[in-house]
Amino acid sequence: MSILTPNEAFRNEPFVNFALEENKQAMLAAIAKVKARLGREYPLHIGAEKIVTEAKIKSINPGNVDEVIGYVSKADQALAEQAMQTALATFETWKKVPVAERAEYLFKAAAIMRERKHEFSAMMVLEAGKNYAEADADTAEAIDFMEFYAREMLRLAATNEHQPLTPVAGEDNKLTYIPLGVGIVIPPWNFPLAICVGMSTAAIVSGNTILLKPASTTPVIAHMFVELMEEVGLPAGVLNFVPGSGAEVGDYLTTHPKTRFVSFTGSKEIGLRISRLAADTAPGQIWIKRLVAEMGGKDGIVVDETADLDAAAQAIVASAFGFQGQKCSAGSRAFIVESVYEEVVEKVAALTKQIQSGLPEQNFAAGPVIDQGSYDKILGYIEIGKNEGRLIAGGGKAEGNGYYIQPTVFADVDGKARIMQEEIFGPVLALGKAKDWREAIEVYNDTEFGLTGAFFSKDEGRIEEALETMHCGNLYVNRKCTGALVGAHPFGGFNMSGTDSKAGGYDYLLLFTQAKMTSRKL
């Protein structure tokens, strides 16, 4: 087990090798442990109060829809207001807590999560439909976020460490980073632990108090995180857990005059709605609300004729179908130069047909999509794709008592086609042909999104030009376009992919603080 101490430099949590029998057995034991507590009820957390409501969110296993993960109490506007007032009152004390003390809560939580990592991963296997490796990577990233942001806040708190000031004779000048206030944190279901933990702890360690409104499809794993922070002694009222309807609770809190910031990860449509609502000034509001938004992508991979075609095909398939394509970084498009197009298409089709679908707890490579709405939407796009391209793999439902869809590939798709332009968020890949590598980059850039991309080539001159001209927030060369690591690959996108927040990077905590400059004449 990798153990970090606060005075050590940050390093990423290692992934578990499930090819080893002891690790596989440990995960199976964790799944059995989690299954033993399925169907429980989970309360709201508002300050020190745990509130059970009549209205509940019913969380089900998308891989076995007869299995109920839990019943989570659902906030209404009155409870949301109670949570806001609690967070406002708590902020007055929490903002005065020394940075080192705030960071220590994160270090303690990371240590406990590391000890129980299989248990957290097992809940995601059941509630989110992740296989072992995807769930383990999610938990590892959650640990990384806490370790990284705790260290980063300590760095920012060091006098003039982040921004050394020019000395002026006769003056003592300092720049300090102070918290904003109360924030609304709205994480997604696809990384229900990592992004939930990262968004929440970044705000908390910066001295803010938050209202956490988890995704309605994965609220139980979010509650596990809330319980963890309670276990490490985080003061009541710093983190308030308020699951609820986006239309009722989400909109209410976004437009609240006392909301200082909204941190959101999710779809473009909801992100733009939050942006519009947050931009309006409510009566009694004395600040411009800050929005930190990551809103998805239509990511792609470009392959030229000099590339390692086997490596490119493997990266295309891994990027497209990891966690059933339900990642904002998923490579749902690939553009290949015509001289090697058919060869790459054949390799991609062969690799895709090898992917086996089944129950996540049995660690199949492909599992279900998250819910009925996604299932219907993705199958609808597959039907659209049958009129826009040549179906070479998949093309419909997969067997199982859940939301299973075959990994699907369409070839010969025009860059303007709907399945090339619209975010599907499922296991659907579109392949297009380009006359040369520059045209391939041009059609790659022809999208309203700009999150991740990859370029496969052995030509250094082309690589240098691609690094400059491919327009996205995270660009990779000769590797897949998913799998950003905290600290190594600060994550965030351009255009309709969001505010380019660069989560897991050295700029991220600046979004949850405001810089106060003080100058004292000596």
Automatic annotation (TrEMBL):
Keyword annotations: NAD, Oxidoreductase
Keyword Metal-binding: no
Name of a matching Pfam family: Aldedh
InterPro entries named in the record: Ald_DH/histidinol_DH (IPR016161), Ald_DH_C (IPR016163), Ald_DH_CS_CYS (IPR016160), Ald_DH_N (IPR016162), Aldehyde_DH_dom (IPR015590), Proline_metab_enzyme (IPR050485), RocA (IPR005932)
CDD domains documented for this protein: ALDH_PutA-P5CDH-RocA (cd07124)
Protein's UniProt keywords contain Transport: no
Pathway, per record: Amino-acid degradation; L-proline degradation into L-glutamate; L-glutamate from L-proline: step 2/2
NCBIfam families: D1pyr5carbox2, PRK03137.1
EC number assigned by the record: 1.2.1.88
Protein name listed in UniProt: L-glutamate gamma-semialdehyde dehydrogenase
GO molecular function: L-glutamate gamma-semialdehyde dehydrogenase activity
Chain's gene name: pruA
Enzyme class: oxidoreductase
Domain Aldehyde dehydrogenase: 55-517
Catalytic reactions on record: L-glutamate 5-semialdehyde + NAD(+) + H2O = L-glutamate + NADH + 2 H(+)
